[in-house]
Every structure is written in structure tokens, then in C-alpha cells.
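Thread: quick sanity check before group meeting

JM: Hey all, I'm pulling together slides for Thursday and realized we never actually wrote out the predicted structure for the chain we discussed last week. Dropping the sequence here so it's in one place. If anyone has concerns about the input, flag it before I start.
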Amino acid sequence: MTPGRPNLAATFLANFIAWRGGGNVAVLTPSRRGGFADGIVNLVCSRSLGQRQNGPYPVEWESNDEAERNAVWRRLVMPARSSVTEALAHLEPHRHTPAVGTVRDWIARQKRVRGIEEVTADVIRQQINRTLSAHRRYIGRGQSEFSAMTIQQAKNREFAHVVVIWPYRIPNDDEQKRRLLYNAITRAQRSCLILVQAQELANAPPFVP
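JM (edit): ok, ran it. Output follows.
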């Protein structure tokens, strides 16, 4: 479909969610540049739409790996080098933050098993990054009933229903756009809806040869 205006596209999305017949829904987009996809999701989250007043629905954007890692690291503000005792004390107030408790246990184990007495911020950051990546792969990513993400974030995952929002601003060549569209469509197990920002996009690759 080529709804063009965010209000109309949001109505299509709200109706799709309402009429899906059960199962989770993932909203996928090749790019959030320009705000078209974000605007649609924001409308669906904020109010009822269309003649049947479907919604609002709690569609949440997934953070990407880099953003999540950086957010955790900004909270920690670790010194460049510290003793194991100092590092454990520094991490203690953040032990309930994702990955930090696991890394704190890892540092304590390194001291107990290998006898290390000092640890650097670089080592701690690398371990946090590994732990967060493992958590995303194996512990429940994509379990929300309604979620939104880039097509790249949806790699190797499946959802009952998929809505693809295709905006103007996609910084890729035609072949890459075809791969992105294929990857998005094949994430769907039961149904897929494609919303294109304008008719001219529907008349160009990846939608035509």
C-alpha cells in the first residue's frame, strides 16, 4: 500500500494489528531517517485510529546493540584502571543493570581462579559488550507482542505478522534494497503488510525489476 501521509499509514497499521487474529507483530523498516516510520509508530501508540477506532497499541522500538552498550557504559563511568576490589565496589550499585551483574561476577571469578588483582576499563567494557550480545541472541529478544525495529535488527528472527514501512530515505543501492525487502518479508510466518511512503517508490526497485 502507498498511504503517503503518516496518519493514513498509521490507520493501516492499527487496523492490521486489530484484525491480525492473534500472534505478535513486528514493524520493520530499512531506515528511520526522515522520521516517517517513527511518526507512524508514535501515532499508533498515542491514540485510536480509523473508523473503528483501533488502538492505541504499545509498539516499542528496540534499541540497537551499540546504543544499548553505550547507554550502559555511560552509567558506569569506570576509571581506566583499578584494583579488582575497587572495580567490584564501583559496579555494585549497578548490579541490576543488564549485563553488569554478570560481569561483576566474572571479575570476582577471575580474581578467585586466576588470582588477578587489577582490571582495566577496556577489559570490563569488552566483557559487557559480549554479555549484552549473548543476552540479545538467547534471552528473549523479539518476545514483545508489538515491537518495531530496523530490518537489520530482525535478522535471523521470525514473527507471526510483519509490517514493513518503506520510506524515501534509504541509503543503499538497488540490489541492497532488494535484499532488505526480501529479508523483511521472510521474517513473517503468517502475514505481511508493506506500507510505502509514496507511489513513485512502489514503481521503482526493489518493488519492480
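AS: nice. The first helix runs from residue 6 to 18. The beta strands are 25-29, 60-61, 81-83, 118-120, 146-150, 159-166, 188-196.
JM: adding both to the slides.
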